[in-house]
What does this fold into?
Amino acid sequence: MALFTDGPISDLGDLTAQDTQLANVANVEGIDVTQKLLLAQEEMALEITTLLQGSGRAEAIWMSAQPKIDNVVVTPALMLWHTFRSLEMVYGDAYSSQLNARYAAKRDQFHERASWAFERLLLAGIGIAWSPVSRAAQPIVTATAGSIPDGTYYVAMTWVNAKGEEGAPSLSASITTAGSTLAVQPSAAPTGAASWNVYVGVDPTALSRQNTVPIAVGQAWLQGNMTGSSGAAPGSGQAHNQLMPMPRRILRG
It folds into this structure.
């Protein structure tokens, strides 16, 4: 999974999977679902921060630092919480507009589901990455002297921390070459990044890692004569090092 701070946790597809009427309701009532996704995540960030700050000082004796929202990894329970919380907000907005009992029932249903997911999160624990490395920004890709088969290529990258843990992949950049090769330059390295990996392919959904060892921060990547397809595909993001169970609390809202 990715870090909580890497971007939106759930998307419209995740919400629609839980409620097939969502798109129609949002269209009829003029509700910006993307905005609700962002608002739900902002509220969750405050709740999680409060939980982490009150998680007790006993563990801090052996921890290098008290975990913060930047350390939080998205787990299945956290993702469900976000999905249900977003749906609750959508139907809450719809009910406020129309005072429709059906919308109120949906709002209450998803409030209960959000509370259930929140309880699962507390019981299983919040995922913590002790050396977080954020999602990479889209790399800068340019044509340069060299020779790879002419065509359009898609390029993504990931940052890697000093422990060899890989962050979430960037969006892919595209480039069309003709009698040349491609050079890849990452943007400024985030805190915690020690190196990076590059992924290339002719299909944006089928990229493979090109470097055999992590590339040093500040060093560009020059694609060789051919693009390898035997390397690993990019992962979904950094995994947690620890699950921190939390004391049970009543979810506000």
Q: What stands out?
A: The two ends are 27 Å apart (CA to CA).
